[in-house]
Specification:
heterodimer; A: mainly alpha; two-stranded antiparallel ribbon; 9 helices; B: mainly alpha
C-alpha cells in the first residue's frame, strides 16, 4: 500500500517535507509559467530522443528545473492522496472564461495560458489529471524516469543508444497534463504565494 | 531540383493526381474531424513504438487513415511550392475568435477545434507550418516514416526493437501541426467540399 510519505523516500533532488502542497505549486508557478514549462520540457525530451545535449547556458539551471518539477510531483502526490475534487462548478461552456485559466504574468496572454493537453473533463476537475498521472506510474517509477531524462539531457547519448525503452509520447502528455492541472489549481484555488497576495492586475 | 510531381513518385497509398490541394484538405476533414485525426496519429505512433498492436479499430481503418494523411501531405507539398502567406491580419487579441478556428462539424465544440500544438506565429500564418514540415524532412523521407509507422503499428515488435531510431516526439508534433494548420486553412479559405457548400449553421459554443 502507498504510504503518505512515499514522496520523501523516493525524492532525488527535492527532499523537503511538504506542509502545504498548494504553496509548493504556487511557488513553482512564481518561478516559471506554464507556457515556459511546456516549451522547456518539450525541448528536453526532443534532445534526449536524439544524441544531443540539451542546450542550456548552465547545466545547474536544468538541475534546478528538475528539482522544481519534482517538488510539484511531490505536491501532486500528497494532494492525490487526499482524493480531492474541484470545488468549482464548471460547465463546458465556461471553457474560454479567462478567470479559469489565466495566470498572473503580465507579459503573458490568454494564448500562452490556455491549456493544450488536458481534456475537457480534466479542465473541469484538474484533480483527475493527478489521479491519472499516478495511475500510469507509481511515484517511485516517475522519479526513475525523471532521473534518466535528466541524465540523458546532459550527455550527448540518446535513450535509443543507451538501449532504454522510452515511451516519449505518454511521458510527455502525462507530465504536461500534470503541470497544466497544477496551473489550473493554482489559478483557481491559491490566493497567495508565501503570504504575499498574488498580483491580479 | 524538386519537381512539381514529386508527390506522385513518392506516393505509397494515395496515388491520385491533385488538381486542387485545398479540396484535398476539405475532403480530409470531411472524412474525419480534427479530434479523430489528432488521436489516430497519437495511437498509431504509440502502437509503432511499443510492443502493442494497433487495436483501436480494424487494421483497414489504420491504413485508410494513413492514406488520408498521405493525401494531406501531398496537398501541403503542392501548396508549399506556391510560397503562400496568410492574407489575414490576426493579433493576439482576436486569437480566440471562433471564426478563425471553428470547423463545421456539429458534434464538436470550440474547445475541440482550438489548435493545441501551433505557436501563435503558426496560428497567424499556417503556411509557415508546411514550410517547417518539409524543412524537417523532405517529401520521400516523410513517406518512409509513415510506411514504418503503419508497418510497426500492426505488429507486436516495436520500431526500436529492430533498431529503427524514430524521433517519436518530433514526428508527432510535425504531423499534428500539419493537420492543425490544414484545418485552419480549411476553415479560413475553403467554402465548399466537391461543389457542395459547407455547413455554416451555428456550432455549439464551447
Amino acid at each position: 500500500m502507498k504510504k503518505h510519505d512515499d514522496y520523501l523516500a523516493t525524492s532525488i533532488w527535492y527532499r523537503e517535507v511538504i506542509e502545504d502542497p498548494y504553496q509548493v505549486i504556487a511557488e513553482y508557478f512564481s518561478y516559471v509559467s506554464i507556457d515556459s514549462f511546456r516549451k522547456k520540457f518539450k525541448g528536453v525530451l526532443i534532445a534526449i530522443e536524439k544524441d544531443k545535449l540539451y542546450r542550456t547556458d548552465r547545466p545547474t539551471d536544468l538541475l534546478y528545473d528538475f528539482k522544481m518539477i519534482e517538488s510539484v510531483m511531490n505536491a501532486a502526490f500528497i494532494i492525490n492522496h487526499e482524493k480531492k475534487k474541484s470545488p468549482l462548478d464548471i460547465s463546458p461552456s465556461d471553457a474560454f472564461n479567462k478567470n479559469l485559466y489565466c495566470g498572473r504574468y503580465s507579459s503573458h496572454t490568454d494564448w500562452d495560458y490556455f491549456p493544450r493537453s488536458i481534456s475537457m473533463k480534466e479542465f473541469i476537475d484538474p484533480y483527475l489529471a493527478f489521479k491519472k498521472f499516478f495511475k500510469y506510474k507509481e511515484i517511485g517509477e516517475w522519479k526513475n524516469v525523471m532521473e534518466r531524462i535528466f541524465e540523458y539531457a546532459i550527455t550527448d547519448a540518446s535513450f535509443f543508444e543507451g538501449g532504454l525503452v522510452f515511451d516519449a509520447l505518454s511521458v510527455y502528455f502525462h507530465l504536461t497534463k500534470l503541470f497544466e492541472a497544477a496551473h489550473l489549481i493554482d489559478v483557481r484555488e491559491v490566493t497567495h504565494v508565501g503570504g504575499m497576495i498574488k498580483n491580479r492586475f | 531540383m524538386k519537381r512539381h510531381d514529386d508527390y506522385l513518385a513518392s506516393s505509397i497509398w494515395y496515388r491520385e493526381v491533385i488538381n486542387s490541394p485545398y479540396q484535398v484538405i476539405a475532403e480530409f476533414f470531411d472524412a474525419a474531424d480534427i479530434v479523430s485525426h489528432r488521436k489516430s496519429i497519437e495511437d498509431a505512433l504509440n502502437a509503432a513504438c511499443s510492443d502493442d498492436i494497433w487495436s483501436k479499430t480494424n487494421p483497414g481503418d489504420l491504413l485508410f487513415h494513413f492514406k488520408l494523411i498521405e493525401s494531406i501531405i501531398n496537398a501541403a507539398y503542392l501548396i508549399n511550392k506556391g510560397k503562400m502567406k496568410s492574407p489575414l491580419s490576426i493579433g493576439k487579441e482576436n486569437a480566440f475568435n471562433p471564426n478563425l478556428y471553428c470547423g463545421w462539424h456539429a458534434g464538436l465544440t470550440a474547445w475541440d477545434f482550438f489548435p493545441r500544438m501551433l505557436s501563435f506565429e503558426e496560428y497567424r500564418n499556417p503556411y509557415l507550418v508546411f514550410r517547417r514540415f518539409f524543412k524537417y524532412l523532405p517529401l520521400p523521407e516523410w513517406k518512409r516514416e509513415l510506411d514504418d509507422i503503419v508497418e510497426f503499428a500492426l505488429v507486436k515488435t516495436s520500431l526500436s526493437e529492430i533498431g529503427i531510431d524514430i524521433d517519436t516526439l518530433r514526428i508527432y508534433f510535425h504531423l499534428t501541426k500539419l493537420i492543425e494548420a490544414a484545418h485552419l486553412m480549411d476553415v479560413r479559405k475553403v467554402s465548399h467540399i466537391g461543389g457542395t457548400i459547407k455547413n455554416r449553421a451555428p456550432f455549439r459554443k464551447s
